[in-house]
Prior knowledge:
homodimer; four-stranded parallel β-sheet; globular; Dna Ligase, domain 1; Rossmann fold; alpha+beta
Amino acid sequence: MNIGIIGAGQLGRMLALAGYPLGLRFTLLDPAADASGARVGKCIQGAYDDPVKLRELAAAVDVITFDVENVPVAAVAPIAELKPFYPQITALGVSQDRLSEKTLFRELRIPTPEFHAVDSLDDLQRAIATIGLPGVLKTRRLGYDGRGQYRLRNAADCDAAWQALGGVPLIYEAWVPFSREVSLIGARSIHGEVAIYPLAANSHEHGILHHTIAPYRNSDLQQQAETYLKRVFKHFGYVGILTIEFFVLRGKLIANEMAPRVHNSGHWTIEGACTSQFENHLRAICGLPLGSTAPLGHAAMVNFIGTIPARDAALKLTGLHLHDYDKQPRPARKLGHATAVLPSPAARDQTLKKMLKLARQ
Amino acid sequence: MNIGIIGAGQLGRMLALAGYPLGLRFTLLDPAADASGARVGKCIQGAYDDPVKLRELAAAVDVITFDVENVPVAAVAPIAELKPFYPQITALGVSQDRLSEKTLFRELRIPTPEFHAVDSLDDLQRAIATIGLPGVLKTRRLGYDGRGQYRLRNAADCDAAWQALGGVPLIYEAWVPFSREVSLIGARSIHGEVAIYPLAANSHEHGILHHTIAPYRNSDLQQQAETYLKRVFKHFGYVGILTIEFFVLRGKLIANEMAPRVHNSGHWTIEGACTSQFENHLRAICGLPLGSTAPLGHAAMVNFIGTIPARDAALKLTGLHLHDYDKQPRPARKLGHATAVLPSPAARDQTLKKMLKLARQ
């Protein structure tokens, strides 16, 4: 079975590496000649919205998925008619627009920060009057890793925020004074089978995921999160891995956003769970039985952003699993990550400290 | 860093899959256009002894290794002058000839079955007179997975054995009435660092490894085996993974053969040990720190020979990790394997039963 992946970043790379042992083959599509994922599978070089290249991809494979969520829906819709395309374009479309996403959360009774569409400075002032301050003005589309966001602390920030982001469709959201950020990742297969990982607790720096610990054990939050995830699964008849990021506020979850794909906060599952998120995504879209999501210990995952430690230094840390994406270093670029799986939370926290030191070297 | 692998079978494939996360790149050389390993890395199509293709490989990479031990030493010697070549050609040469191998074992005081070189029917009769019966007549070269062997139970078998194998250099070995077969796998790096896995217990069918359980815990045998492995390491100043297969006879080890490469009886280390044999081989030949060989539980590995179970059936077994080599089925061909890692020997044995049933479907 040949899997087509639109995008050959590190997620496509890790999907392919997880899929080869299942006997799957991969063809990726990416505009970059030296894409990370292109080093581990056949790659068609082309833009994500190039209709000729997309048809070439579709012709070569049995099922299509993607590793970037900013794939233009209009461009990929025609190939979704040619071959099975998972997760579905409907889910992809909703997740690309923060307004649609939050509107869906509201429809599905999934708590989300108060929000207001903003298309003008007037709208912004109205949004602030309704929702209050502090808040965050965000672009509705193409925002990721903290880009396209402006935090407003008081009314005087209004003009600067509009100057910074105005001109494209925006959304104003209430600032949530959260105590913690967690994410839930689950898979739903073509046959409707569902497998959900334990929650992960995430720490961001400059808007980019910096490190994750998992499992984050809290049976009450786990239950809330699973209920919400299943509502989204049901709504779309979803197929593949779905991630929802939540704020934790006074013991309750508030959904921040969803990603219709494998997620950085699930990289710990490669070594830390019985079946990785990458393998379960492939099993889901190929209609195979889903694998156990049971954790194998207490995992810590640290991202290497902008710079990657020397292999020697990294591999000296006992039990550290390095994932070098083989990408050219650039500031704020995710170049790799490392995971360690320990027998206890205390041992994990101790190792996490060493890993964080390594990431900052 | 670019790694060259002579041979693109399943071992080359699994080496590449283990090496990508370290940021390594791979170029393989194989005569088959549809080689298993060629699906996961760049592959030069050519014979193992084609001097032009070998030089092309050497030019493309920083260090060279191999996934087949029957690479002709004379053919690869010139490229070992061009680029680091590990494990060393000296070790490769010795392991290709059962007589040299057993002579080395004897020199290094590693117990081995009594043996006698056989180049004529007279030699065979002399060997039987010296060593006795039962015994096994084997080709000195190119034997693997039980091929090139003839078991002699009584003197009357002598002519038939000679008829079957005569004409090439042979070796006659005493039959060892062993209670168990075990193997020890260890790595030695360029810098002399050594990391050794726990023993694995192996079961063969028709001369081919069928299944393995690991760790096989016996501190006395583990110590004996490590002592012997280290003698071979020291003798060659060895670099890479080395495997020695032993018979167990009345609590003592008798070395049967060695393989200067990652080994089928070490496939359990992918999920069952902190660092896999594939990753440690790459770390060793790249001069990186070796990874922990600690087992993560009790592993069972079953080979799929001649036929591979349907993915659906295999993946329904909870905790089973499938490794489909993506090879065309042929009788007696290794097409894949599966590993399960369980918390106790009893749980492992129970799962092993199910896996054996699966392998026979």
